[in-house]
Design a protein that fits this description.
Helices cover 4% and strands 61% of the residues. It has one helix at 14-22; strands at 8-9, 48-59, 66-81, 85-96, 99-102, 107-111, 114-138, 143-164, 167-191, 194-213, 217-219. Mean pLDDT is 81; it is low at 12-19.
């Protein structure tokens, strides 16, 4: 997903998330309960609410370049109903797009008798969130179903800058994302010590993005935004467009 420009798939980041992928369906939170598997939620004894916070840092070997950030990694609320069914909601990052890169070297070129210096930078912020509404139903002692309705949404902003003799020429754009995923879960209890967990994911609406690309502008006051109001007009201002 990162190669396609969507960002780092959050579920595969860090050791904890890698381990969660291995035991995502099987009970890992409490006996007979996995928070990522709605077909086990009805086994909770009480309403459950959890908020977790995490951080991530990427670096390039043999270099001082690093990129780090932190944010809410997961929020989930589950209400069991008479040990037969349940209802819950969760909110978590789906993909992160936060990155900032600055060229370590200053490039030099000459035009006639004048020497010019310039450096380049690239920064991107935002990402995609996943909001899920889930439920479960226990058919009998051996069979239980779970269901997740997942909505993907979010946006990202990108800025590419060239700092040219004290002034910044900036190209910016914004992408808005949306998509819908459905997950169906099944728990089969063959014996007390033998259980089978399964999950099927169906893409109702593939993840898509709407790109809004803006014109180049000369950031005269250096605040990183295209200002249209006096006295801080950036070039070009509306009267020149």
């Amino acid at each position: 997903m990162n190669a396609l420009g969507v960002g780092h798939y959050y579920h595969n980041q860090g050791l904890n998330n890698a381990m969660d992928g291995i035991i995502e369906l099987s009970p890992s939170f409490k006996s007979k309960v996995s928070l990522s598997n709605p077909s086990t939620w009805h086994n909770l004894k009480f309403t459950f609410l959890s908020l977790s916070y995490g951080g991530n840092e990427n670096s390039i070997n043999k270099s001082s370049i690093s990129n780090g950030y932190s944010s809410i990694s997961n929020a989930i609320w589950v209400v069991p109903i008479k040990s037969m069914s349940s209802f819950g909601m969760s909110l978590s990052p789906y993909a992160d797009q936060r990155i900032a890169l600055v060229d370590q070297d200053t490039s030099i070129f000459q035009v006639f008798d004048t020497t010019y210096n310039y450096t380049r930078s690239f920064d991107r912020s935002g990402g995609i969130l996943s909001f899920k509404i889930g439920t479960s139903y226990k058919v009998n002692k051996s069979i239980a179903f779970g269901y997740y309705y997942g909505i993907l949404f979010g946006s990202s902003r990108k800025h590419e800058s060239i700092y040219f003799d004290g002034s910044a020429i900036i190209q910016s754009d914004r992408i808005r994302y949306n998509g819908i995923l459905n997950d169906i879960f099944l728990t089969l209890s063959i014996r007390e010590d033998i259980k089978v967990f399964s999950q099927y994911t169906h893409t109702v609406k593939p993840l898509e993005g709407a790109l809004e690309q803006k014109h180049l502008f000369d950031d005269l006051n250096g605040n990183g935004y295209h200002d249209y109001s006096p006295p801080y007009y950036d070039f070009p201002y509306p009267g020149q467009c």
